[in-house]
Amino acid sequence: MEHQDRGDQGNGISNPLREDAHAHAHKKSVLSRLARIEGHVRAVKRMVEKDVSCPEVLIQIAAVRSALNAAGRLILEDHVRGCLIDAAQEGEFEAAFNDLKNSLDKFIG
């Protein structure tokens, strides 16, 4: 798998472009979840602006984190079912597996 690294875009996250990118089965669902998460984050920000109690804000932050993890799991499922299988068929499994391992290390923490 060839990578063209555009570097980090000021956020510390590398943005590799893959020439072999393909549509993912859960793309619509992931985008929908991310839109809801975006709205939820805005609501949490408003809570802080309105001095809502810390425990209530923390509960909502936990909900956002959980929603992000769920979206991440869908992306991971798509990656394993599509990208890794494709890489294995093209003889590029080791490189794809190493990319996945590095991504999981960051995702899991």
Question: How would you summarize this macromolecular structure in one to three sentences?
Answer:
The chain has 109 residues and is mainly alpha-helical. The protein is built from three helices and two strands, in the order ββααα.
Report on this structure.
It is a single chain. The protein has 109 residues and is mainly alpha-helical. It has a single domain (25-108), classed as Methane Monooxygenase Hydroxylase, Chain G, domain 1 (Up-down Bundle). The protein is 69% helix and 10% strand. The protein contains 3 helices and 2 strands; from the N terminus they run E-E-H-H-H. Strands 1-2 form a two-stranded antiparallel sheet. The longest helix has 36 residues, at 54-89. It is elongated and about 55 Å long. The chain starts with a strand and ends with a helix. Mean pLDDT is 84; it is low at 1-11 and 13-17.
> Which percent bin holds the helix content?
55-70%
Number of helices: 3
Q: Which CATH top level class fits?
A: Mainly Alpha
The major sheet is characterized as:
2 strands, antiparallel
Order of strands, main sheet, comes to 1-2
* Separation of the first and last Cα atoms: 25 Å
Name the CATH homologous superfamily: Metal-sensitive repressor, helix protomer
Output the radius of gyration. Answer: 17 Å
Q: Find the structural class using helix and strand composition.
A: mainly alpha
Order of helices and strands: EEHHH
The CATH topology name reads Methane Monooxygenase Hydroxylase, Chain G, domain 1
Q: Assign an overall shape.
A: elongated
Relative strand content: 5-15%
Number of domains: 1
Task: Indicate the CATH architecture.
Answer: Up-down Bundle
Would you tell me the overall average pLDDT?
84
Low-confidence stretches: 1-11, 13-17
| Strand count | 2
